[in-house]
Amino acid sequence: MADLRTQALDDFRRRCKDQGLAFTFQRQVIYEAVVDSREHPTPELIYEQVRQRIPSISLGTIYKNVKTFLDSGVLKEVTLHHGSLRLESNMTPHHHVVCASCKAIFDIKETAVESVRLPTSELPAGFAIQQCRVEFVGVCKSCQTARRKKSKAAKECST
Amino acid sequence: MADLRTQALDDFRRRCKDQGLAFTFQRQVIYEAVVDSREHPTPELIYEQVRQRIPSISLGTIYKNVKTFLDSGVLKEVTLHHGSLRLESNMTPHHHVVCASCKAIFDIKETAVESVRLPTSELPAGFAIQQCRVEFVGVCKSCQTARRKKSKAAKECST
DNA sequence: GTAAGTGCAAAAGCTTTGCGGTGAA
DNA sequence: TTCACCGCAAAGCTTTTGCACTTAC
Prior knowledge:
The first copy, chain A, is α+β, with helices and mostly antiparallel strands. Chain A has helices at 4-19, 25-36, 43-53, 59-72, 141-158, and strands spanning 76-77, 87-88, 94-99, 105-109, 128-139. Chain A folds into 2 domains: 1-91, Arc Repressor Mutant, subunit A (Orthogonal Bundle); 92-159, Dna Ligase, domain 1 (2-Layer Sandwich). Chain A has a 3-stranded mixed beta sheet with strand order 4-3-5. Chain A is globular. At the A-B interface, helix 2, strand 1, strand 2, strand 3 and strand 4 of A face helix 2, strand 1, strand 2, strand 3 and strand 4 of B. Chain A binds a DNA duplex through residues 21-24, 26-27, 42-44, 56-61, 63-65, 67-68, 83-85.
């Protein structure tokens, strides 16, 4: 009987193969650390977890692999905005449209979307909601144009 | 006739007074730089803008004042997650509940909220939406408890 | 065997902090 | 006059990069 962990491991091995990534012990343990933690961990937290099983691992390796996993779609980032403080002077409630490519942020007035409701039963126990933010993620006009140009150039280059 | 800029300035002066903040030229220019820019600027971008009017300003002053403005509610941050990469292994679409105090992130299954629609007319021209993310912001149970304890202690301290 | 991955250390952002001089109230 | 604020410089994080060694394929 293949237990869940074995199955998850096979899954991960397959995903590495699909992405052309070498299947190393370090990668396996890093990946498991993220999956096992229910906390949306930071690289530092992953480092602490992984070090319990691989004391010789370096933080640099965590970062390199996290980046590899993000690039290949094995993991995701919780937010597109990490790494830079972005400010807001529009103090009236509103929502955002964000370009995944250039990180441009556009405001949308609150009334443009229907108010979103969440049944209390879906919330963590005792959580007090103050606000609901909606974020539409996509690609802005100029980034679409840039991508088209780039892929066209790549095509011409390969012929 | 008081133009818009004069009025905005008076507004800002009043807000500083309300918050017990000194009204300095630097603060005025920093604030105006954020308001004038439609781009949800970073501190670095604000620095560039402000330097055109106050060449001697330092980046440290930008950071100090941005922090002051955030603490006093004169400005807001676009996201709570800036400053730390947070990872996600749950690749199925879902939404988040975030504690504004400890930054804990909880998953909510996508079906828990009705799908959010945005009329194309509300979008920036040419923007291609790929995804909609909903984030409920509030305070988790343990942070509520901690705050209650803290404010109780403060009360006892002041008597 | 070869290309990719690892560990280590240095460096590159971004942000905070401390201190002496300056300016707002 | 006093206290908060400014500019400067140093330090503290987080993240990236380069290089020699090792490992997966």
